[in-house]
Amino acid sequence: MIVRRARRDVYQDVDTLRQRLRLTGDLPENAVSHGPHYDPVLVEAVQTFQHRHSLNTEGVLGPNTFARCSLSEARPAIETRRGSF
Q1: How far apart are CA 49 and CA 55, in angstroms?
Q2: I need a labelling partner for 26 at 20 to 30 A (CA). Which of 2, 18, 56, 83 fits?
Q3: Does the domain spanning 14-82 belong to CATH 1.10.101?
Q4: Distance CA 62, CA 7 (A)
């Protein structure tokens, strides 16, 4: 079961999420996001990810976003923008 993550929720896998969003280019390397919370910086990065993947850009880490972020479909933003895929 996937739990929807909303703003300011404590999320035990937040470090993994940050790492994935940095790898895909949706969370800039210089972005300041620390601690166990799904903070506004992560919300914005998730919205960017959602937009690139034609998902609802609500900023909530729901089942569709989670599935896309977890699979190989989470392509780096630069490659997606070039139309490589």
Answers
A1: 8
A2: 2
A3: yes
A4: 12
The amino acid that residue 11 corresponds to is: Y
Hey, what are 75's tokens? 């392509």
Nearest to 80 by CA among 52, 56, 54: 52
């035990």: which residue's tokens? Answer: 12
pLDDT digits (tens, 9 = 90+) for 2-49: 444 555 667 778 888 899 999 989 999 999 988 888 888 998 999 999
* pTM for this entry: 0.74
Say which amino acid occupies 40.
P
78 Cβ partners below 8 Å, 6+ apart? 25
pLDDT in the model for residue 83: 45
